[in-house]
Amino acid sequence: MDFGMVPLTHYLFLSATLFVIGVTGVLIQRNVIVVFMSIEIMLNAVNISLVAFDRYMNLHDGQVFSFMVMCVAAAEVSVGLAIIISLFRNKPTTNLDEFNIMKS
Amino acid sequence: MELLIFYPLAGLCVLFALGVVVSNSPINSAISLIGMMLGLSGIFVLLQAHFIAVLQIIIYAGAIMVLFMFVIMLLNLKGKGEDEKWQSRDKNILLNVLGGLLATGVLYKIIDIINAGDFNSPAMPPESFGTVREVGTILFTEFVLPFEVASILLLVAMIGAVVLAKSKVD
Prior knowledge:
The complex is a heterodimer of chains A (104) and B (170). Chain A has 104 residues and is mainly alpha-helical. Chain A contains three helices and no strands. Chain A has helices at residues 8-28, 32-57, 61-90. With 170 residues, chain B is an all-alpha fold. In chain B, helix 1 packs antiparallel against helix 2 (26-46) and helix 2 packs antiparallel against helix 3 (50-75).
């Protein structure tokens, strides 16, 4: 039975691609905020996989999981941005390489 | 038919995600990220996950991105040009090892995906698949404990954000 649907592998490829883009962003970027956005990209890539498997196995569990992922992302962003603001107050830069106060 | 909708949406998502990573100023990254979120919500609609699609727009494109924009404006960040990235990172051994590990892992998984069985012809889902009623029912019966834990997590995050943003780091 083929309904002209997108094969599951396409969704998984899209998910893997977005995840790799997110990791690349975390590795090459130095701006704290852009690193945060790359983490968001990774979380979203995982959501695609969850929802796609859900659809192809006729379950709803994956949608609940992606709901939880969204909750965690919201919590992480709020705390992370608060940390960035307080760091910025201490030292007015967003370059990650300059935050080495724990090193000395 | 669905493929005709899927490919433009997926291409748009990947392009916007690349835009987030390679653009020089944080504000451009944030705008690209909003584009990616909207594209992803289209893909969720294509997967018949209507509830998740709406949540994607409300939570990500609405709340989280507004928070990002707010912080970018608050800190008055402008693009620093070339010195922000791509420099002096290529000699970082840890970075290279991590990148290599990631590349091998993803390649391995992609080969796995190609060799996996036939997931390509699923049964047609019922009409009510992915609606708020269906997802809500399973959320409040089977997953009620994780749901409550998530609410506590959000409360803790809210208190944490207030405390962190209020106090000085010294």
